[in-house]
Write a structure and sequence with these properties.
heterodimer; A: mainly alpha; seven-stranded mixed beta sheet; 7 strands; 5% strand; elongated; B: alpha/beta; Alkaline Phosphatase, subunit A; two-stranded antiparallel ribbon; 11 helices; LRR_dom_sf (chain A); membrane (chain A); transmembrane helix (chain A); Cyt_c_Planctomycete-type (chain A); Putative membrane protein (chain A)
């Protein structure tokens, strides 16, 4: 583009030469160090004469690199702390290579001194270069590509495993929230291997056993439990845990520990089971796992092959609408808003789609009990609506084959108590609608106890008549 | 020589006579082809292609990813209700009642009508906390309080338009200026409709007036006009001229529409204008609507308990009737039902627009129907896949209006853009939650601010769209409902 706006200046232009120029001192210094090492053998002693020149060149190119690097840093956009480290390291490379050159005569007399300085020089430029690389390629450029064996060796913090709860309120307090804190902060010393203070914190049972000074946990009394008390001590205090120099617990972790102990240090309760104060709520809210917005519970995570076009066309011809649930999926949703005549004789048409069909809305169609057997074969179904159909439900237990069923709408049908109770086998069922049916409260209760997490809406809502319904507000006329 | 010359001249002239204006233009095209090729090559990197519309523009389409909502009911309170008398409880404002507004709240601010230094106006309602969520709801909405645990309040919605027209346009089309498609148009453009017998996008109005911004709030803007909202009348014939004239039977009607559509199809094959397709599908839709619309728009057949629940009065134009219709339409697969209720502009200029009189009457008019709508959707298992949105186009000031610097005959509040309350319910919206906070007098948003584009992004998200990818190529660039901003309000999603 000829008309590109020119924002450049000599300063930022030369700054951008930095990534090229930095390789000069690196190469020259490596060459110099190589020559120093080689020249230790009498055969190659003559190489030593070249070293001072190389050192001088290295120093000069390092100075140039520092200057251009400084200009480049003016462009901004670099991580401050990394930049500072790299900045001072770069200057020290320039200075030390200069000193090396100046002191050459002095150093060359003692070969070990020469080798030592050479190797320290090599280390310095390696570290400097690493920070420079981190600046341009990002902090985790190397570690991200590191093989597992190597990264264990380099003691990289292992990638945090994704929590196995979807909502923080479903998290197990001890397993999911407390033990991980202990694992990162305490277990390195309080383990079977080290057994500091005779205390092990690898499990709740071991924690309850206590250490050589007795129990560390007093249920419901965090302020009297050693395990909590010691965290709050001043850093200088010799009883403080984790001891000076070891990373201490974050305020959030401390808060969680206090909350857990204050509520009796339960072993298997979930977050939603015990009361929370405002501070704990804030901590928990921050721990809420990020939602994968595009993933619905009612859509299987596994992929499926596309459905046959002719099977879809056959249904479309009957007035049904067949659609992928999303453009990124082969799973299908079928609705029947314009297929009022769709009935038992057509139901077989759904079978070719049984691998893909997950949402089926047949409300207002002529589907009756005869079709339930076929519907039972649609084993991927997660949502099924039979609202306002002639279904009576005598064969409703056929739906127990639909193991994935989560939503079932039977409202405005003639389903009976017996039929509804036969849904017991659908363990995944979460929502059941039986508005305007003959289903009794007793069988609803029976089903609700049989399936955990099932919400049954029996409908029949009425709004009370309130005096305010009819008041018209007017200014009093005097 | 001269004979030859004459001959060549004549041949040339004859040739020119055959070269018409069209030939000239055709030559130009081939000549310009090279330039065109160049521009194609340079634009290779961009993936935006003009949309090719083929077949039925209202055919159902899959969203980007599986969505929780299949339909939307948007309840727009035109004129902008006062959040300070409904959901945003500010006891500190009551302390300041009738005191002069501190200058810090007025400096550099513009108001539609407030001039000089107005007085503060304390909340003119009694608030209580309701439900397990402890949501503050005023006694103006006694029925709605039972829904506290079903809705998600957005307490810090912000807009930048303090006049009704532009603010309504912004709220509905994402832009304060004319010409953009409304939310319902974008949704039907993206999803089509699963009930080809009814319009995909229906508009119902109540309160005696249509919104100030006019019909452009349900217009299709630059989208093909097939996606615009269809306004149905709630009194008399829902759609005018839907019945066949005397002597015209349904077969004859069908035959004539088939003939017209055939001509239109030939027209489309020849010129490829998407508006021709819109025309075809509108003819077909109209024919089907002749049966389907009177049926769905007739609330007389609803059982008595439903009428009692909603507080409907068949034959009258009312918000209650519209709420019941909204449920019926959604039940039949209509994608987007937009309700406008006029009369919320409580300036205090007269009794009807007084915070302490007319406003309370408006609240009474919507309280029962909205509660009934939510409960009815719930018991039918529809709330699960229907997104309900409630709100005005802006909020109202914590100051009492003093139009032209004078005291008003009634209590009133001016238009306020910096913070107001909306709520959403159903279709994957977190139940019983409140997001966003205003300062202690409800003047400005201090936490959880929400822009109009964020509301749009959230609506599209729930329908299964990445709001950044639902685009339409227009005037050389892809447009979207949220245009260049918009963030999904994830804290209110379950």
């Amino acid at each position: 583009m000829i008309l590109l706006q020119n924002n450049g200046s000599w300063i930022s232009f030369s700054g951008r030469m930095h990534p090229v120029l930095v390789h000069l001192p690196i190469g020259i210094l490596v060459a110099a160090i190589l020559l120093i090492l080689l020249s230790q053998r009498p055969r190659w002693q003559r190489f030593q004469t070249a070293v001072p020149l190389l050192l001088l060149l290295a120093c000069l190119s390092a100075v140039t690199s520092c200057i251009t690097g400084y200009f480049l840093s003016k462009d901004g956009g670099y991580a401050e702390n990394l930049l500072d480290t790299h900045f001072y390291l770069g200057i020290s490379v320039a200075v030390s290579s200069g000193l090396f050159w100046i002191c050459w005569r002095l150093l060359r007399r003692k070969p070990w001194l020469l080798i030592l300085s050479g190797i320290s020089m090599l280390l310095l430029i390696t570290i400097t270069g690493h920070y420079g690389g981190s600046l341009t390629h990002g902090d985790n450029y190397l570690s991200a590509a590191m093989p597992a064996a190597l990264s264990r060796f380099a003691s990289q913090p292992a990638k945090a495993a994704a929590p196995d709860y979807k909502d923080i309120s479903d998290a197990r307090i001890y397993e999911d929230l407390i033990q991980p804190v202990l694992n990162t902060r305490c277990v390195s010393c309080h383990s079977q291997q080290k057994l500091k203070g005779g205390l092990q914190l690898e499990s709740l049972a071991l924690m309850r056993k206590g250490g050589e000074n007795g129990p560390v946990l007093k249920d419901s009394l965090p302020e009297e439990s050693e395990i909590y008390k010691r965290i709050l001590l001043q850093e200088e205090d010799e009883h403080r845990m984790p001891p000076k120099g070891k990373p201490s617990l974050s305020p959030a972790e401390t808060e969680l520990l206090h909350w857990w102990i204050a509520n009796g240090a339960p072993a298997d309760k979930k977050v939603k089971d015990i009361p929370k104060n405002v501070r704990v709520q804030a901590v928990l809210a921050a721990m809420q796992p990020a939602k994968t917005l595009d993933q619905l519970e009612t859509v299987p995570a596994s992929e499926v092959a596309a459905a046959s076009e002719s099977a879809i066309a056959a249904l479309t011809a009957k007035g049904l609408k067949v659609l992928p649930v999303g453009a990124n999926s082969h799973y299908l949703s079928v609705s029947a808003f314009t297929a009022g005549a769709f009935g038992d004789k057509d139901i077989q048409l759904l079978l070719p789609l049984k691998a893909q069909l997950i949402w089926l809305d047949l409300s207002g169609t002529q589907i009756s009990d005869q079709s339930l057997e076929t519907l039972g074969q649609l084993q991927q179904l997660t949502r099924l609506t039979l609202r306002g159909t002639p279904v009576k439900g005598d064969k409703l237990q056929q739906l127990s084959h639909c193991k994935q069923l989560m939503y079932l709408n039977l409202s405005e049908t003639a389903v009976t108590d017996a039929a509804v109770v036969s849904l017991k086998q659908n363990k995944k069922l979460q929502q059941l609608y039986v508005n305007k049916t003959k289903v009794s409260a007793a069988s609803v209760q029976q089903l609700a106890t049989a399936i955990t997490g099932l919400k049954i809406d029996t409908g029949g809502y009425r709004l009370p008549v309130l005096a305010s319904d009819t008041i018209a507000y007017h200014k009093q006329m005097n | 020589m001269s004979r030859y010359k004459k001959l060549i001249d004549e041949a040339n002239k004859e040739h020119l006579r055959y070269t018409t204006r069209r030939h000239f233009l055709m030559d130009c095209v081939t000549g310009l082809g090279a330039f065109a090729l160049g521009s194609f090559l340079t634009s290779c990197g961009s993936s935006s292609k003009p949309q090719a519309l083929t077949g039925d523009p209202m055919a159902p389409k899959a969203p980007h990813f599986p969505g929780k909502a299949k339909s939307v009911i948007y309840l727009h309170m035109a004129g902008a209700p006062s959040q300070l008398e409904l959901f945003d409880y500010k006891p500190a404002l009551a302390q300041l009642h009738n005191q002069l507004c501190p200058p810090s709240l007025l400096e550099g601010k513009k108001f539609a009508f407030i001039r000089g230094v107005p007085k503060m106006l304390g909340p003119q309602a009694v608030f209580k906390q309701h439900g397990n969520s402890g949501a503050w709801i005023s006694d103006h909405l006694p029925h709605f309080t039972s829904m506290a645990d079903d809705v998600a309040f957005l307490k810090a919605v912000q807009t930048d338009q303090f006049n009704h027209g532009p603010a309504q346009l912004l709220m509905q089309t994402g832009s304060a200026r004319l010409g953009r498609p409304s939310t319902g148009s974008w949704v039907t453009y993206g999803l089509g409709t699963e009930n080809s017998n009814l319009p995909g996008f229906v508009v119902l109005t109540s309160g005696g007036k249509t919104p100030d911004a006019g019909k452009s709030v349900w217009g299709s803007g630059f989208l093909p006009s097939v996606y615009q909202g269809v306004q149905c009348r709630t009194k008399g014939d829902p759609v005018l001229f839907l019945t066949d004239p005397d002597g015209m039977d349904r077969d004859l009607r069908k035959a004539s529409i088939d003939a017209i559509n055939q001509i239109n199809e030939e027209e489309y094959t020849a010129y490829g204008d998407p508006e021709t397709l819109a025309r075809i599908s509108q003819y077909e839709l109209a024919y089907k609507m002749q049966i389907a619309v009177p049926e769905v728009m007739n609330i007389n057949n609803e059982p008595d308990y439903i009428h009692e629940m909603y507080g409907t009065q068949p034959g009258k134009e009312s918000f209650a009737n519209n709420c019941l219709l909204a449920r019926k339409l959604v039940e039949k697969g209509v994608r987007f039902v937009q309700l406008y209720d006029w009369g919320w502009d409580s300036h205090g200029t007269d009794e009807n627009l007084a915070i302490d009189y007319g406003f309370r009457n408006k609240c009474r008019e919507i309280d029962r129907p909205i509660t009934a709508l939510l409960q009815d959707l719930k018991q039918r298992g529809l709330l699960d896949e229907t997104l309900v949105v409630w709100g005005g186009e802006f909020g109202r000031t914590p100051m009492q209006e003093n139009r032209d610097g004078k005291d008003m005959p009634f209590l009133g509040r001016d238009h306020h853009v910096e913070a107001f309350t909306m709520w959403m319910a159903g279709a994957g919206i977190k139940k019983g939650c409140s997001y966003g906070e205003t300062d202690e007098i409800g003047y400005s948003a201090i936490k959880g601010k929400v822009a109009i584009n964020d509301i749009h992004a959230t609506i599209l998200q729930q329908l299964g769209f990445d709001h950044e990818k639902l685009t339409y190529q227009f005037q050389g660039r892809p447009f979207r409902l949220t245009d260049t901003s918009g963030k999904v309000i994830t804290p209110i999603l379950s």
